Design the sequence.
């Protein structure tokens, strides 16, 4: 409806806001940042264009930073031994990946490949370090958000690992019951 | 397009860029002696940038906008420079002018004649005449040029303006300049380049700041020591000692040699002053090596003595006095860049 679009234009869209800043705002790591702070992050991020099938980073490469998909799509692949690769996820506009590399240089755990011609924003560890030096308050906000994202992931992994352990224990109990009955 | 052909395409693009860059570097080497003055201004601006950037960052981190932070740092710099102009610079200019006059009037040939007479009286078997003539001729040209260069720097108002202008924009737009330059790197090497540039910048920044602070200490200590032994032009020789201190192993020797030449020019009869000068330089070096260098200069850029000698000779023949002073810092910069480049390429399994 036309009236809906008028209201949505008034309340939802941020006039004059660039595609990059909209994409940045959609990422939990940049949550609760003011317009000025988002603009500061936008000045810092690097807009990169990837062709279809072009690698963004490869598994085991040292991690340099995180990426936000602005246009196009990206697949995350995990090597299963030899040339066999398993698709872990396909990411689209507003999705982000590789955020752990903001914390340290440990090797990438998966490969990211552009599915089609894509425009991707890169926010790197060196950019974060520069923020720490030049705008520590903003850097702290980002680091706290990053810690929240990582802790959520850790909590999720803990729950999964707990469930798996329980499943394994019940499987072992059933097996031992079967063996004793035989 | 397959992934391998994309990578191949990006590698070809990268190689083309590397060839163009090497061409530019080769052209620079060709034009280097012709654009020496501009290069010096550019290098001084970069040195000032390295020295001031932590102060500007610190003020910015307190919430002061970057442009204002730079202006504040510049104003403090002007204040210090103003005080220096008031108390230190006039005697230096006076000394440098007087020294230049002494060089022009007397010439190191005469000084070397004095030295050769002194040596001949004790070691009659040595043919010192030829050595004295050659050394005297060479040093006369170099010293006059060196003194002229210092005077030129002090008096050239336009050069100062250019340096301030360049330093201001390096400080203000460093992020944009860096972002635009790195933006040209192909995707395959982008992450690696960012990390490498950051590391190189950090290492070089601390190295340059360390060397400049170290040089300043050596200049002050040498000036004090030379004043105490009664050497004329002690300010000027102290500054030379601070500058040449950037050259490992040979730097202090060059500084001491200049001091000896100055001493012999002003008073050829008193050869005892050579012993005092040697003692001053030895004490300054001892303090520098034991106290100052370990605290302020990073060990990451240690160079082999042979490399130091070769590089200083090449720098000297390419750019004269300027080359002599900047050869080691530039080689150290190149060493850090190459080391980080190799480390980065290895960790990304490119080589």
Sequence:
């Amino acid at each position: 409806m036309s009236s809906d679009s008028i209201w949505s234009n008034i309340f939802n869209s941020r006039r004059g806001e660039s595609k990059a800043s909209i994409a940045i705002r959609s990422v939990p790591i940049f949550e609760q940042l003011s317009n000025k702070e988002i603009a500061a992050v936008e000045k810092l991020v690097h807009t990169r264009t990837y062709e279809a099938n072009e690698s963004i980073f490869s598994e085991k490469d040292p991690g340099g930073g995180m990426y936000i998909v602005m246009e196009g799509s990206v697949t995350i692949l995990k090597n299963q031994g030899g040339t066999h690769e398993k698709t872990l996820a396909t990411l689209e506009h507003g999705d982000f990946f590789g955020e752990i590399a903001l914390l340290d240089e440990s090797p990438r755990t998966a490969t990211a490949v552009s599915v089609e011609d894509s425009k991707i924003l890169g926010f790197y560890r060196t950019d974060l370090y520069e923020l720490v030096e030049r705008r520590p308050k903003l850097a702290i906000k980002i680091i706290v958000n990053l810690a929240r994202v990582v802790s959520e992931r850790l909590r999720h992994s803990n729950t999964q690992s707990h469930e798996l352990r329980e499943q394994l224990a019940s499987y072992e109990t059933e097996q031992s019951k079967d063996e004793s009955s035989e | 397009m397959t992934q391998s052909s994309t990578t191949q395409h990006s590698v070809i693009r990268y190689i083309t860029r590397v060839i163009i860059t090497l061409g530019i570097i080769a052209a620079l080497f060709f034009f280097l002696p012709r654009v020496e003055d501009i290069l010096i201004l550019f290098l001084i601006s970069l040195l000032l940038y390295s020295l001031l950037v932590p102060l500007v960052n610190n003020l910015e981190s307190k919430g002061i906008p970057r442009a204002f932070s730079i202006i504040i740092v510049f104003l403090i710099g002007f204040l210090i420079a103003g005080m220096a102009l008031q108390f230190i610079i006039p005697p230096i200019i006076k000394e440098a002018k007087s020294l230049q006059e002494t060089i022009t009037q007397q010439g190191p040939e005469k000084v070397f004649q004095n030295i050769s007479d002194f040596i001949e009286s004790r070691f009659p078997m040595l043919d010192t005449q030829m050595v004295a003539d050659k050394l005297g001729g060479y040093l006369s040209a170099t010293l006059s040029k060196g003194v002229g260069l210092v005077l030129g720097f002090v008096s050239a108002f336009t050069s100062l303006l250019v340096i301030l202008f360049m330093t201001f924009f390096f400080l203000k737009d460093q992020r944009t300049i860096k972002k635009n330059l790195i933006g040209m790197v192909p995707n395959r090497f982008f992450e690696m380049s960012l990390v490498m540039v950051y590391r190189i910048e950090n290492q070089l920044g601390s190295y340059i700041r360390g060397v400049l602070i170290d040089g300043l200490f050596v200049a002050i200590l040498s000036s004090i020591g030379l004043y105490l032994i009664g050497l004329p032009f002690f300010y000027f020789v102290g500054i030379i000692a601070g500058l040449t201190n950037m050259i490992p192993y040979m730097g202090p020797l060059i500084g001491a040699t200049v001091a000896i030449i100055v001493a012999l020019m002003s008073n050829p009869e008193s050869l005892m002053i050579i012993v005092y000068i040697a003692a001053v330089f030895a004490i300054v070096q001892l303090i520098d090596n034991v106290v100052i260098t370990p605290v302020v200069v990073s060990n990451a850029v240690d160079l082999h003595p042979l490399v130091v000698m070769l590089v200083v000779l090449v720098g000297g023949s390419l750019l004269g006095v300027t080359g002599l002073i900047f050869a080691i810092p530039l080689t150290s910069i190149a060493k850090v860049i190459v080391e980080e480049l190799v480390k980065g390429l290895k960790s990304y399994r490119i080589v």
Notes: The CA atoms of residues 182 and 190 of chain B lie 7 Å apart. Chain B has one domain: 9-347.
